Amino acid sequence: MFGQYGPSETFKNVLALLLTKVLFPGARLVRRPFYLRGGKCRFVYGEGFTCGYSCRFDLAGDGTPLIVGKNCKINDRVHISAHESVVIGDNVLMASNIFISDNSHGSYGDDSSLPDMAPDDRKIVTKPVRIGDNVWIGEGAAVMPGVTIGNGVIIGTNAVVTRDVPDNVIVAGVPAKPIKRFVGGGWLPSGKR
After folding, report:
1. Residues near 70 by Cβ (< 8 Å), separated by ≥ 6?
2. pLDDT band at residue 150 using 50, 70 and 90 as cut-offs
3. What is the pLDDT of residue 115?
4. Is residue 127 within 8 Å of residue 83, measured between CB atoms?
5. What average pLDDT does the chain have?
6. Where is pLDDT greater, at 92 or 190?
7. pLDDT at 48 over 60
8. Vertex 14, ends 18 and 95: CA angle to 5°?
9. What is the pTM of this model?
10. What's the pLDDT tens digit per position in 171-191?
């Protein structure tokens, strides 16, 4: 498990593994530092959960706002803010520096928040986030409130996902748009049959 690391990194991983077995039974490895704000009982994870360095999970609201499926691998510095509901499926792979949130300070549609009001004073607005099974999220991506991501999706590096993504699609860009989809055993450019 640790053959590719030098002596000091191996030592840190062994220590993290021991703490993982005590604090997060069933998880594969949770590296330190790990920030879990809002209480461990509000975070449910599946067997084989792996988490990189400096991940931050901010949990608020009622119930269990963050559920992570089996065999999910989350790399370094992933920030998940869950006030209502963020559900992540099985076998999800996340690169580093990803942001996922089901909430924002204020509402900016028909029920608009005023721009002269301090953002901290605006009401927290929540919309559930769902991420399907076998999803790969690239480096620096952001998944915004109210988004549902289907199964087998790939989110490109630095993409900002603001709308739902159907199954078996690759999205990229700001805002993220479909660039390929899996059809008949192969990946085709989006729009071709």
Report:
1. 46, 47, 48, 49, 90, 91
2. very high
3. 83
4. no
5. 92
6. 92
7. yes
8. 100
9. 0.92
10. 999 999 999 999 988 999 987
105 a catalytic residue: yes
Q: How far apart are the first and last CA of the chain?
A: 43
Determine the CATH number of domain 33-183: 2.160.10.10
Q: Tell me the one-letter amino acid at 151.
A: N
- Which residues are CB-contacts of 149 (< 8 A; sequence separation ≥ 6)? 130, 131, 132, 135, 143, 155, 161, 164, 165
Task: Please identify which of the residues 21, 32, 56, 105 carries the catalytic annotation.
Answer: 105
Backbone angles phi, psi at 119, to 5 degrees: -55, -35
**Is it the case that residue 25 has pLDDT exceeding 80?**
yes
Residues 50, 163, 161, 152, Cα dihedral to 10°: 50
119, two tokens: 């953002």
Q: What is the edge-to-edge ordering of all strands in the sheet holding 86-88?
A: 43-45, 66-68, 86-88, 129-131, 148-149
Q: Which of 134, 51, 22, 54 is nearest to 88 (CA)?
A: 134
Burial of 80 (0-12, 13-18, 19+ CB in 10 A): buried
